[in-house]
């Protein structure tokens, strides 16, 4: 029997199937999808069994050493999906497999010494070998590596690699009855506590010492029963449940209004017919999309099938988790970056073992190993975080479409501000469009107020706040209501500037200015991580007139306290939410009224549903508009609409103040009027003229090297190869310097391809990826290929 294995080596050169013989004692256990330990060159490594066959390409094969999990980590579907993704997304297959699985199951390699013959070795050395094994790390700590060398040369000690997974299943010490006849056991006892312990263990089958302690049974009582031969100590495996101690408030099923009912019925028809169909659910903020999702999932579960729900990381708030947990209890597995690696591993295992039937999570949970999916839902489908920016560069929507076809089930894409690509497909009939344009609780949409900051400046107002926003904030604070202020920039200041000579402190490794962070009192580069102390005098002209320019959330927090004497601020950005649980804790504090102003970056734009929020302020609506990104207008429209949707979600009237220097821009005008269709029409004309998606597909190639001449020469060579494989209808732009032309001392050039249909393009891209991987190994020249890019900086 032969196993075809992908080895866990991040190299294009070995990214292929290797044949291994299956030892006779493993033949009945080996199946595709398992992780195995295999010899590879002089070492042992982890691999994934892709197929099992009777035919091999070579006569002499190395045998598989061990099977790491008897229940496969990869389903047959995920194995097929990995092959498709590897080619269509120009990625190494091992990188795709790694992306599919939680970090905990990836290989952990440890150098060890294995004792073969202890008769020749003195006891002062053998004492360090535990079960004939000593790790290199421990041997180095003991400073005995030189002493082991003669025994290694004689073959009495063998150097080896131990392969394990990064995180082990969590176990607790527990006990079980040693004999089945409980009455006979109890008859031997006089202590009431011991009798009660036996009865508890008999009823449960087995209990941990912690559980017994909670019942008033001490370790001394347990040890006495073990000594009498009545109990046996065992290791009991438990799962790390991140929500075990949380109380979920009841979330009753709500009656659907007409638009909700129509959406529900339409999707249900596809569920009943086992039909793969993609629906775009365009529902305004507060229209009740989540309630439709919940009721669809209930129907799917009743049919014995499973459900995947994708939610942007920043929208995975306690409120969202509560709704799903309240409806479906322990059948819900939650997967997001806020969990520890061990917790994520256990949530994943719940799905794998069939203990959970609904997964709610961020982008990577699209790979949840369900075997019978009945519906896939992507909430806030327009969010750019559904696109992975590292290898493999996939979009969760593309993977969801593939899996929905595989399982013959519907895919629901929900958003108040759909991506232009999705809405265009719905307009053409590729997707089925469903609309919910009224709020579920009949609440009115918040009133939009535009503050023209050019006028404010002409009137002498140079502060962060327009007069109207300042007055509105004070009014809401005085009424005991809450305010949300949005600024899409963390840090204290955007950059520092010498007002005499114009010098700006730059990162020495990147072509980008340093950002000032007051909390840590340092200048930081957000690209390579470089940091330095702030400067008090200009390094260029020695002037003392150097100051912070632009504002970040830290600076705005300072200004709020200076402006509003009774303000209590909670700031939410990457700096304040780094610690585990911080995001949830800050939102809980705001919900409980511990602050009257919530100031934050993009993470506060979603998932907030607090009845006391009556004012939202967008401090600078132009931030996105000024980026060199063809999606900048779309992102601006989406952000304004999404942030505005946080206000007035109950019986209190909501207001939104949008501060801008470009009040006439169509993205802002249409957002103020809640007119998505008008925005779509105007933006599509811009896309048509610029030959941008959805009219054209795009592929982005980024080339990097420490030597400017090398990167320019190779970029031109790549351009020439592409031209040979493309039709005259395709557009190849570049090579040209990237907008940020140097990061971490690497010069960066880019090529952009625009096309409608190019059958030979994927073949050419995979060829380039193979060829330049070899050059990277030799000369550190790197080529990054991104299909349908979102980031082109």
TrEMBL record:
Residues annotated as domain Helicase ATP-binding: 270-436
Enzyme Commission code(s) on record: 5.6.2.4
Reactions it catalyzes: ATP + H2O = ADP + phosphate + H(+); Couples ATP hydrolysis with the unwinding of duplex DNA by translocating in the 3'-5' direction
Enzyme class (EC, first level): isomerase
UniProtKB keywords: ATP-binding, DNA replication, DNA-binding, Helicase, Hydrolase, Isomerase, Metal-binding, Nucleotide-binding, Primosome, Zinc
InterPro entries: Helicase/UvrB_N, Helicase_ATP-bd, Helicase_C-like, P-loop_NTPase, PriA, PriA_3primeBD, PriA_3primeBD_sf, PriA_C
GO terms, biological process: DNA recombination; DNA replication initiation; DNA replication, synthesis of primer; double-strand break repair
Domain Helicase C-terminal: from-to ranges: 511-687
Top-level taxonomic group: Bacteria
Residues reported to bind Zn(2+) 2: 507, 510, 525, 528
SUPFAM superfamilies: P-loop containing nucleoside triphosphate hydrolases
GO molecular function, one term: ATP binding
GO cellular component: primosome complex
Cofactor(s) the protein needs: Zn(2+)
Binding-site residues for Zn(2+) 1, renumbered to this chain: 498, 501, 538, 541
Co-factor: note: Binds 2 zinc ions per subunit.
Known partners and oligomeric status: Component of the replication restart primosome.
UniProt family annotation: Belongs to the helicase family. PriA subfamily.
PANTHER family: PRIMOSOMAL PROTEIN N
Function: Initiates the restart of stalled replication forks, which reloads the replicative helicase on sites other than the origin of replication. Recognizes and binds to abandoned replication forks and remodels them to uncover a helicase loading site. Promotes assembly of the primosome at these replication forks.
Protein name per its UniProtKB record: Replication restart protein PriA
Organism: Macrococcoides canis
Name of the gene encoding the protein in the UniProt record: priA
């Amino acid at each position: 029997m032969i196993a075809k294995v992908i080895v866990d080596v991040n190299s294009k050169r070995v990214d292929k199937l290797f044949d291994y013989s299956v030892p006779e004692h493993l033949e009945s256990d080996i199946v595709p999808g398992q992780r195995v330990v295999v010899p590879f060159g002089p070492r042992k490594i982890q691999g994934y069994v892709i197929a099992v066959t009777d035919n091999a390409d070579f006569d002499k094969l190395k045998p598989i050493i061990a099977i790491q999990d008897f229940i496969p980590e990869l389903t047959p579907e995920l194995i097929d999906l990995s092959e498709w993704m590897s080619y269509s997304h120009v990625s190494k297959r091992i990188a795709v497999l790694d992306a599919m699985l939680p970090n905990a199951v990836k290989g952990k390699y440890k150098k060890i010494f294995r004792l073969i013959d202890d008769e020749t070795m003195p006891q002062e050395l053998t004492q360090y070998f535990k079960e004939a094994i000593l790790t290199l790390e421990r041997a180095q700590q003991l400073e005995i590596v030189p002493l082991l060398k003669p025994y290694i040369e004689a073959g009495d000690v063998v150097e080896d690699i131990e392969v394990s997974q990064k995180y082990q299943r969590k176990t607790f010490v527990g006990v079980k009855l040693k004999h089945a006849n409980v009455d006979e056991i109890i008859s031997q006892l006089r202590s009431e506590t011991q009798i009660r312990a036996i009865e508890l263990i008999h009823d449960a089958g087995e209990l941990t010492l912690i559980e017994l302690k909670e019942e008033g049974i001490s370790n001394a009582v347990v040890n006495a029963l073990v000594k009498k031969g009545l109990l046996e100590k065992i290791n009991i495996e438990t799962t790390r449940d991140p929500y075990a101690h949380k109380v979920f408030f009841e979330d009753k099923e709500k009656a659907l209004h007409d638009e909700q009912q129509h959406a529900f019925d339409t999707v249900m028809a596809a569920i009943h017919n086992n039909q793969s169909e993609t629906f775009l659910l365009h529902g305004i903020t507060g229209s009740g999309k989540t309630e439709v999702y919940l009721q669809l999932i209930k129907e799917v579960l009743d049919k014995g099938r499973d459900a995947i729900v994708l939610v942007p990381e920043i929208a995975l708030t306690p409120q969202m988790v509560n709704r799903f947990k309240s409806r479906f209890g322990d059948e819900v597995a939650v997967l997001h970056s806020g969990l520890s690696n061990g917790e994520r591993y256990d949530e994943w295992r719940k799905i794998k073992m069939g203990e959970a039937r609904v997964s709610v999570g961020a982008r990577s949970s699209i790979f949840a190993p369900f075997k019978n999916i009945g519906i896939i839902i992507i909430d806030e489908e327009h969010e750019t975080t559904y696109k992975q920016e590292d290898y493999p560069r996939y979009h969760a929507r593309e993977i969801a479409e593939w899996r929905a076809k595989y399982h013959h089930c519907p895919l629901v894409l929900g958003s108040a501000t759909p991506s232009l690509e999705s809405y265009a497909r719905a307009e053409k009939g590729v997707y089925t469009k469903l609309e919910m344009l009224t709020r579920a609780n009949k609440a009115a949409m918040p009133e939009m107020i535009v503050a023209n900051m050019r006028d404010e400046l002409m009137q002498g107002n140079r502060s962060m706040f327009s007069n109207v926003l300042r007055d509105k904030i004070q009014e809401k604070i005085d009424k005991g209501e809450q305010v949300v202020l949005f600024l899409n920039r963390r840090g204290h200041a955007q950059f520092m500037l010498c007002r005499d000579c114009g010098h700006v402190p730059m990162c020495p490794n990147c072509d980008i200015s340093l950002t000032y962070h007051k909390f840590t009192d340092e200048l930081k580069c957000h690209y390579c991580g470089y940091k330095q102390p702030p400067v008090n005098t200009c390094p260029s002209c020695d002037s003392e007139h150097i100051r912070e320019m632009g504002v970040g959330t830290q600076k705005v927090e300072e200004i709020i306290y200076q402006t509003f004497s009774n303000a209590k601020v909670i700031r939410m950005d990457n700096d304040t939410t780094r610690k585990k649980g911080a995001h949830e804790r800050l939102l809980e504090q705001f919900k409980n009224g511990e602050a009257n102003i919530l100031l934050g970056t993009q993470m506060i734009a979603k998932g907030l549903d607090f009845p006391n929020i009556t004012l939202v302020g967008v401090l600078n609506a132009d931030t996105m508009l000024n980026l060199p990104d063809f999606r900048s207008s779309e992102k601006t429209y989406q952000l304004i609409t999404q942030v505005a949707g946080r206000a007035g979600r109950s019986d209190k009237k909501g207001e939104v103040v949008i501060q801008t220097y470009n009040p006439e821009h169509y993205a802002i005008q249409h957002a103020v009027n809640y007119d998505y269709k008008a925005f779509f029409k105007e933006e599509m004309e811009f896309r048509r003229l610029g030959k941008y998606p959805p009219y054209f597909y795009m592929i982005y190639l980024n080339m990097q090297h420490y030597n400017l001449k090398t990167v320019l020469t190779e970029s031109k060579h790549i351009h020439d190869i592409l031209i040979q494989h493309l039709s005259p209808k395709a557009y190849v732009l570049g090579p040209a310097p990237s907008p940020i032309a140097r990061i971490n001392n690497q010069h960066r050039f880019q090529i952009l391809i625009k096309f409608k249909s190019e059958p030979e393009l994927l073949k050419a891209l995979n060829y380039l990826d193979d060829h330049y991987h070899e050059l990277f190994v030799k000369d550190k020249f790197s080529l990054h290929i991104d299909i349908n890019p979102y980031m082109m900086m």
